TrEMBL record:
Keyword Signal among UniProt keywords: yes
Signal peptide (from-to): 1-26
InterPro entries noted in UniProt: ScsC_N, Thioredoxin-like_fold, Thioredoxin-like_sf, Thioredoxin_domain
Function as written in the Swiss-Prot or TrEMBL entry: May be required for disulfide bond formation in some proteins.
Coiled coil location: none
Protein name: DsbA family protein
Length: 285
């Protein structure tokens, strides 16, 4: 039965049951719910399989005939495979969304209240957007402008930046210096952030130190502070958060109870924020 269950049942339920077996029940199908119809199909297919395999000496031949019947039907109706593929993909996406929501709920303050996160916009805003970024990510460079436009047009958004250096050692060094800048009173983090993204070529330790020095910080002290264990721990917490949420690229966003994977335009961010206010989801019905 394992052979039938793993290879035949999904195809038989969708193909043979619908085309060959269900018509016998056609008069009552219209009155059935989706769950009742699915249960009926399962029952009929199980009976068909049992009938085919009832005679043990002929079981192998029955398997062959049954498999050929399924194959013939699918070859004659290729659109069924496409429908099945779309259904499976939709099911997988729904499962992933549900799992992400559960994970976000479990993570709680680790998402929105890390001591080293950068908070821009309205710290008491009614909607929070979290962005994972890398200073050497081209799409993250474009995302800066989208973030700035969102903060300019919506004064009730709380925007959190999380250092997620994954592209190079230069990214990791820049993230360490950036974390120190964020901790330093009297230094404009956003100015530092935008200047690094305006840099030509790769952003590395030298470039981050150069920008920080231009803003009045001591480069020697910065290099010493880079090795502090608390800096390593701060960036490590973002790595752990990203791992828990299946984030492995930049930019990625957390908006409400959803992880938005990949770059998002200003219009896209604004629409998701507005939807969250309207219906509690980033996509309203």
């Amino acid at each position: 039965m394992r052979f039938i269950n793993t290879l035949i049942r999904p195809l038989a339920a969708a193909a043979l049951a619908l085309s060959m077996l269900v018509p016998a029940q056609a008069q009552s199908v219209g009155d059935m719910s989706k769950d009742e119809l699915s249960a009926l199909i399962e029952q009929i297919v199980e009976e068909k399989i049992e009938n085919l395999l009832a005679d043990t000496p002929k079981a192998s031949a029955a398997k062959g005939r049954f498999g050929m019947a399924v194959e013939d039907y699918l070859l004659a109706n290729p659109q069924l495979l496409e429908r099945m593929s779309v259904a499976l993909q939709t099911q997988a996406q729904e499962a992933e969304i549900a799992q992400t929501r559960e994970t976000l709920k479990a993570l709680g303050d680790r998402v929105y209240n890390d001591p080293d996160q950068v908070v821009l916009g309205n710290p008491n805003g009614d909607v929070t957007v979290v962005e994972f970024f890398d200073y050497n990510c081209g799409y993250c460079r474009q995302a800066v402008g989208n973030m700035m436009q969102l903060l300019e047009t919506d004064k009730n958004v709380r925007f959190i930046l999380r250092e997620f250096p994954i592209l190079s050692q230069g990214s990791a060094d820049a993230a360490r210096i950036s974390t120190i800048v964020n901790r330093t009173e009297g230094v404009d983090y956003l100015e530092f952030h935008t200047k690094l993204f305006q840099s030509r070529g790769q952003v590395d330790k030298a470039r981050a130190l150069e920008v920080a020095t231009e803003m009045g910080m001591n480069p020697v002290e910065l290099e010493l502070a880079m090795q502090d264990q608390s800096i390593t721990q701060a960036i490590g917490r973002t790595y752990q958060l990203a791992d828990a949420l299946g984030i492995n690229s930049t930019p990625n966003y957390i908006i409400g109870n959803e992880v938005v994977r990949g770059a998002e335009s200003y219009e896209g961010l604004k629409r998701r924020v507005d939807n969250l206010r309207e219906c509690g989801e980033t996509t309203c019905p």
